[in-house]
Amino acid sequence: MTGTNDFTADQAAYDYIPAEEIANRINALQQRLVAEKLSAVLVTHNVSVLYWTGTMQTGYLFVPAAGEPTLYVRRSVERAKREASIRTVPLGSFSRFGQTLRQDYASIFESEGPPRVGADLDTLPASTYLKLASFVSEAYDGDKGGAALPDRGLSRLTDASPLLRRARMVKSAWEIERIERAAVALEESLAEALPELKEGVSELEWIARVEYGVRCRGHIGVMRLRGYNQEVPTGMVGSGTAAAEPTYFDGPAGGRGLGPSAPQSVSMKRFARNEPILLDLGCCIDGYVIDQTRTAVIGELSDELKEAYGAAEHIIREVEKLMVEGARCSDIYVASLKLAADRGLADHFMGFGADQVRFLGHGIGLEIDEWPVLANGFDMPLEPGMVLAVEPKFTFPGVGVVGIENSYVITAGGSPPRALTRTKEQLFVL
Amino acid sequence: MTGTNDFTADQAAYDYIPAEEIANRINALQQRLVAEKLSAVLVTHNVSVLYWTGTMQTGYLFVPAAGEPTLYVRRSVERAKREASIRTVPLGSFSRFGQTLRQDYASIFESEGPPRVGADLDTLPASTYLKLASFVSEAYDGDKGGAALPDRGLSRLTDASPLLRRARMVKSAWEIERIERAAVALEESLAEALPELKEGVSELEWIARVEYGVRCRGHIGVMRLRGYNQEVPTGMVGSGTAAAEPTYFDGPAGGRGLGPSAPQSVSMKRFARNEPILLDLGCCIDGYVIDQTRTAVIGELSDELKEAYGAAEHIIREVEKLMVEGARCSDIYVASLKLAADRGLADHFMGFGADQVRFLGHGIGLEIDEWPVLANGFDMPLEPGMVLAVEPKFTFPGVGVVGIENSYVITAGGSPPRALTRTKEQLFVL
């Protein structure tokens, strides 16, 4: 029942991921496995399992460099079989998973040299990793298992996180359409909520209004992040000094938050006149996120903040020219640092002082912190189909944050990127 | 600035965790370390870091079995120092973390035998675990580091997840007060939204209304789960057959969801007459969650479903009598299975067929899937201050789910547990 919908009328909105999408993704992944001389990859993270199978039911996806992949499902087998476009079987006894792999993939595990199997070690919890490494060892080394090896079998299951993250960077037309749906849902919800952004309303009350809007339009209720210990509700709305408070969140402006248990995003602070209000919002439709930021003010900003906002718009215009096929991500980041410095705003760019972040933009897709990142260390060239959120922002401690953020898809042949964000670009003066 | 509030008026709602709470928690943890002969524990997960320090900024918490713990902060040091009640220092160079630990905790790492250090391996990603194990080895074994050891240093950092989970089971009065605040916020929001639960309204639209209510009352926008690949927005609202669909979610009724990328909780299905509507809802205030379920119907349920709902109420009444100090969790689970079987409903209890879950209730607190669990394997006795959500439910494939869920705190001396859930117990006939 791959890719077809057997639901009744009221279930029509439950759209499966097309089988050809999954086939293309598996094919591209297998090419990467061959290129990096991996025998196979064991995918454990729910978002990646969804991407390469079409279902998010729990289990383990085994993709050999050549041949048919298998999804071993813990729960629910029934739903996984309905949704997945690849071979789907019950996981069975977890402690016998090594033997199952050896049976199903004899050409890999009965080969002469030890196979090189990778996994998503950037998300996989250590306790499960130790078990899986032992099973993969057992599949090759036989009944003695990984525990008998000097390194406990760790050499049998290596880190394939970078490979898996790179493999999801370029989005298909089907995926981009979904990101655009999220952009529309957010734009409509923001337009509904803006008239209620008034003096005396709290950041929390107002984001609740936006969240209601995106939820009614299909927002799935969570925004997925890959980073350990990172969370985001639907973005942040930060006004005045509350926006400028430093946070753990891996972004240029985290916001004060509601307390130590939610130390980022909105707070109970009420909007006041003549302070910058940062509207960094997102939502997730069909699994795909959008990310955008606008700056608003009730009344008027100071000249210093108006200039900084202008600098953010200037930087995003200049960066758009640089975001062409083949450009190196790190070069774009370095160029943005120079643009901020040219305006005398280096210390305020992307956070302040010790709490500055070292990037200008980040990939978006199924997760809000995808690759590539516009940062040092990311020397990969931009490719058509990559989708990035670019967010030049300036932080003034005790005063506030101004900035802008658009999401773009890279296009082919040296053309500028296409903006996916719908909301009008301006300083919203309310 | 431990435990005091230096914010201005509009920041008054940002309540710090009292220093004496943190001191009590650290003290209890150190007693467990001594009892289990661990030299120290390295805490990496944001929720646990919050619990034992008062801040959720990113970094690593090192708690020795005796002496002063230290929070090594990656970001933001400024905010962590403001919020934490324990010694808080910048992490500095991560690659030198082993040397930092050796300097700060010489009595542990310069001892004769290798120290036994634990960590939360149930959440810690494998790639970071491998680094931390290497650092801890380096702290003891010197410059050669963990990589030179036969097992790559893994024996130096063992799994302390069970210890850490057990240490958070018994809640203080301060914590229970916060869970009760969440219960009030949910009850008020549910009461506001119930009049809008009408034929033709979709599950999604209606939960959006509840979510708006809890958000305005301080819901932090996320519900935290510990389990890998588990997610929950604010619970699920499932009507008729949509509620009864099997899911990966580790609960008795996950719900259809919005698509493969959100295959649980609400769907686009519209409420119809004479079908059971399961309202399994929660929210998170000050970091603490509440979890409750009620069953509603527009019109009338069939006799079979009415009887099943009655059985759920009967089971929760009987289980309340069993939930006394000293009772074994697994015994209560086994008793509930018998109660369901006595009503001829064994096959429908806690899910259906292959997708039944093997528990009756679960701890709640900072996470929705805390310990203890009312399940086989949990032979620990109930202790005063433990908080559990108990959720007898019956699934009828193609028809729907009925049931009830209350959250309780265990009391002392053989008294029945105190219900924290506020919403009236009844089949809501609308």
CATH architectural name of the largest domain in chain A: Alpha-Beta Complex
Strand order in the largest sheet of chain A? 4-3-2-1-5-6
Mean pLDDT value of chain A: 94
Classify the fold: give the CATH topology of the largest domain in chain A: Creatine Amidinohydrolase
According to CATH, the homologous superfamily of the largest domain in chain A is Creatinase/methionine aminopeptidase superfamily
Straight-line distance between termini of chain A: 53 Å
Output the helix-strand order of chain A: HEHEEHEHHEHEHHHEHEEHHEEEEEEEE
**CATH level-1 class of the largest domain in chain A:** Alpha Beta
Domains of chain A, number? 2
The structural class of chain A is alpha+beta
Assembly type: homodimer
Major β-sheet profile of chain A: 6 strands, mixed
The greatest interface here is:
A-B, 86 and 86 residues
Brief summary of the model shown:
Chains A, B: Pfam families: Creatinase_N, Peptidase_M24. 2 copies of one chain form a homodimer. Chain A folds into 2 domains: 9-167, Creatine Amidinohydrolase, Chain A, domain 1 (3-Layer(aba) Sandwich); 173-429, Creatinase/methionine aminopeptidase superfamily (Creatine Amidinohydrolase).
